[in-house]
Structure formats: structure tokens, C-alpha cells
Write a structure and sequence with these properties.
By secondary structure, the chain is an alpha+beta fold. It is built from 13 helices and 18 strands. A 5-stranded antiparallel β-sheet has the order 2-1-5-4-3, sandwiched between helices. It has a 5-stranded antiparallel β-sheet with strand order 7-6-10-9-8. The relative contact order is 0.06.
């Protein structure tokens, strides 16, 4: 049998793509492979000696720069290998001016004729390292996103292109009343109000997929059938191949904001409405003051006084400075404007009750509207008739409320007025907008009757 000649170690040494150096017992480089030389040539290393004769340990010990921490670890590790045998491994950065690189270093020990040596290999692991870092970052980002979604105060949900819900966070459960077990797998359609056509989901989905809409106001429905105003922020979700597979949605409850906007709009409209009516009120005051005055001096004194009352009443509404205020005091502050005209035509009675700010504002605006209307069209526009205001506490099923009634006697209405202006809105919708109460306005042969029910959280009875 013919034996093959032995292969010199230098040949094997140079075949590997890893950069390899051999160190003697003192850590001095005694040999390097072809990959090491090529690396030195390409990166500005010592192309004459390729660092042969240089002490590797000293180089590590004196290193300064981004990798000096790892260099210190390498010095300790290789020193231990040379002294005790065994192996050592670590990873370290070795960046060039144009590219970031990472290497894996392995040191193994050996002995020749009783003298220790070490073989140190350097393998470029930049691709793997970058992939690992990307995977780690993706993991942390996914964890962070999952935490944000789970703890968000906004309802966050997602569903596939057929509308089947695939994620549902705790805020979604709080907003809509459905647990994840109840919502997952269901069609998103169960949140839509019954008045929406079945085709609306498909149209909405197609617009999101096409990028035509990213946010909009909508009305959705909770488990109890309650309609909720929400702001929806939506975006398509893509799979690994880039194709759109689902839609994510963030639903923010804006019901309170919408109610506040309605109240603000109502108040602003009321101020504008009152400004337009001011001249009519002044004209009515002038007319009735002239009717009861015998001289120009008397008219001037009375008219000036009544205009002052009007200014004071208007200021109290516009500035909205009410705190906790007695209902009787609120009535008196409104009646003061007209008291000198018809002091004996106002009657009011009821228990001692304080209104809290929101109710005080709602009732004050309504009273002013009623007084203004009466001055222009009701009993205060004539020489007879009375205004009676009464209030009482009412308890039903442990739910206490305050019932306030305004009644005009002396101006019968054979038919209810057909025109319903802003004053009608103030008297019939203000309570619902501001205090979640109920109000009604009726015209009959007795006269005008307005009733408001004030919930317990808006007053304090004494």
C-alpha cells in the first residue's frame, strides 16, 4: 500500500478563511496564515512583517479605542490559556472607517518539546452578529409594542380582511364591554350601529387598504347597545411577504368631548341669540316703563334703573361665575330685572336647595330665556297674568331628583307656536346637554308650562 506524503501544516494553515496567528509561551506572534496577511494588506496593517515578532498580549494590554474593554478581556483569556492550557472564546468589535465589523476569537493551547504555544483564530461574524442584533431588537420592539398595546388607555384591536377580530386589548374590553374571549373571532360588524348598511364595512376596509383614510370620527355600539362617539385611527397590517393581511384600529372614546363641544356651541349660540334679542328687550322695557310713568323725569329714572338690571343679568350669564348657589337666589337675580315692572306678578316657592355650577348655568340660561320670551310674547307683555315658579324634591327607586316648574297664567295658547327658534332649543335640549336631565315645554289653554328634572349630582338639598 502506497502511503501519501504528509501534508505540511502551513498548507492546512493557509486553506482556512479565518485569520490565524500562532503565539509562543510569552505571547509573541511566531507565525500567521495567508488570511491574516490578506487582512493586513486590505486594512492598513504591517505588510512587511505582518506583526510576526510582536507581542500579542502587550498589544491587547495597551489597546485604546472602541474595543479596549474587549482587548483587556482577550489578554487575560489568552494568558490563562498559555499558563494553564484549555481554550478561550470571545466576540469583539473591530470596525473600519467605512464598515462596522464583529469578530469571534478562539484561542487553543498546545505544547511542543515542553514549551506552550497557542493558536488564535479570528472569524468574521458580522453577518450573523447583525442578524442576531436585528432579531433581538425585533424581539424587544415586539415586547415593548405588546406592553404598550396591553396597557394603552385607548381601545386597540385588529381584524383580518373579512372583518374577523384577531386582537383585542383590555381598553377595548373596558370601552365596549366584551371580554377577549367574547370578541376574538367575531366580526367587527357587531360594533357597528344598526343604521349602517352592510356594505359600509367593505367600503371602509377598501379605503383603509388603499390608504385613502387613516383617521375619522365614528359611532360604535357597546355590549349594552349604548352608542359611543369614537375617533378611529386605522392602518393596514402587512405579512412577511409585504401583502396586506389585516387592519389595526385605535378607538378613542370622544363621547365626553363631543358633549362638551355641544354645550360650548349651545352657550355660544345662546350669547349670540341674546345679543340679537337685546334691542327687543330694551324696546319692551321702554314701552312698559313709558306706560307706567307720568313724567319724563320719572320715565328716565325708572328706565335707567331697569337697563342697569338688564346689564347685571347679562353679565352673570356671560361670565358664568356661579359657584354653589341657592335656587331662590338665582331666581331673585333673574327676577330683579323685571321686579320694578311687575313685582306682584311673580310667585315662587320650594325647599332650600343649592345648585352646583353646571345646573346653575343651565337653569339660569333657561330662566333668562323664559323671562325674555314672556316679556316679548307672554304674560309680561300684557298688563295681567302671573309667573309661578315652584320646585320640589322627588325620590323614585332611591334616585333623588329636583323638579322645577315654570308656569305662566293669563296668556292662553289655543295652538302651540309652529316656529321653534333657538329659545326652544335652550328650553328643551339644554338639560340633556349639560346635566343629563330631562325638560319639557307645553303650551295650552292655561298658559306656558316648562318643567326640568335635575339629577341628584347637580344639587345639594338642605
Amino acid at each position: 500500500m502506497i502511503q501519501s506524503p504528509p501534508i505540511p501544516y502551513e498548507t492546512v494553515f493557509d486553506v482556512t478563511d479565518d485569520e490565524v496567528v500562532i503565539l509562543d509561551a510569552d505571547g509573541v506572534i511566531v507565525d500567521v496564515n495567508l488570511a491574516w496577511k490578506r487582512f493586513c494588506d486590505e486594512n492598513g496593517g504591517d505588510a512587511k512583517s505582518y506583526y510576526i515578532g510582536t507581542n500579542y498580549l502587550t498589544t491587547c494590554r495597551t489597546a485604546f479605542g472602541p474595543s479596549d474593554t474587549e482587548a483587556s478581556v482577550v489578554e487575560i483569556g489568552i494568558s490563562k490559556v498559555l499558563a494553564e492550557g484549555g481554550a478561550f472564546r470571545c466576540e469583539y468589535p473591530c470596525h473600519s472607517p467605512t464598515i462596522e465589523r464583529w469578530f469571534e476569537l478562539k484561542a487553543s493551547s498546545g505544547k511542543i518539546a515542553g514549551s506552550s504555544f497557542a493558536v488564535v483564530t479570528h472569524r468574521n461574524i458580522s453577518t450573523r452578529y447583525v442578524q442576531q442584533m436585528a432579531a433581538r431588537d425585533a424581539f424587544y420592539q415586539a415586547q415593548m409594542l405588546a406592553t404598550l398595546v396591553a396597557n394603552s388607555n385607548d381601545a386597540i384591536l385588529s381584524y383580518d380582511l373579512d372583518g374577523k377580530i384577531i386582537t383585542w386589548n383590555r381598553a377595548a374590553q373596558k370601552l365596549y364591554g366584551y371580554s377577549p374571549e367574547e370578541a376574538l373571532g367575531q366580526s367587527i360588524w357587531f360594533l357597528f350601529t344598526p343604521d349602517l348598511p352592510a356594505s359600509s364595512f367593505k367600503a371602509y376596509r377598501d379605503k383603509v387598504v388603499a390608504g385613502d383614510i387613516t383617521g375619522f370620527e365614528a359611532v360604535r355600539m357597546d355590549r349594552d347597545g349604548r352608542r359611543i362617539d369614537v375617533w378611529v385611527t386605522c392602518s393596514p397590517l402587512r405579512g412577511p411577504d409585504g401583502a396586506i393581511e389585516a387592519i389595526s384600529g385605535i378607538h378613542r372614546d370622544i363621547t365626553v368631548r363631543k358633549q362638551l363641544e355641544q354645550v360650548q356651541s349651545l352657550v355660544a349660540h345662546e350669547v349670540t341669540h341674546r345679543a340679537k334679542n337685546m334691542l327687543s328687550v330694551v324696546n319692551a322695557i321702554q314701552r312698559q316703563t313709558a306706560r307706567s310713568s307720568r313724567t319724563i323725569a320719572e320715565f328716565s329714572e325708572k328706565f335707567s334703573q331697569r337697563i342697569s338690571f338688564l346689564v347685571a343679568s347679562t353679565d352673570s350669564l356671560v361670565h358664568g361665575d356661579w359657584k354653589q348657589v341657592s335656587l331662590q337666589d338665582l331666581l331673585v337675580s333673574q327676577f330683579d330685572l323685571f321686579d320694578s315692572i311687575a313685582a306682584d306678578r311673580f310667585v315662587y316657592n320650594g325647599p332650600s336647595v343649592d345648585l352646583l355650577p353646571q345646573a346653575a348655568q343651565a337653569v339660569g340660561m333657561a330662566l333668562h330665556e323664559l323671562l325674555t320670551n314672556s316679556l316679548k310674547h307672554g304674560v309680561l307683555s300684557s298688563s295681567s297674568g302671573t309667573v309661578e315658579v315652584s320646585w320640589a324634591l322627588e325620590t323614585r327607586s332611591d334616585d333623588k331628583s329636583l323638579i322645577l316648574v315654570w308656569l305662566e297664567r293669563g296668556t292662553p295658547f289655543h295652538t302651540e307656536p309652529t316656529r321653534q327658534g333657538f329659545g326652544h332649543t335652550v328650553l328643551t335640549k339644554l338639560a340633556k346637554s349639560m346635566i343629563k336631565g330631562e325638560s319639557s315645554l307645553h303650551f295650552d289653554l292655561t298658559g306656558l308650562r316648562w318643567t326640568i328634572s335635575i339629577p341628584a349630582q347637580h344639587f345639594v338639598d338642605q
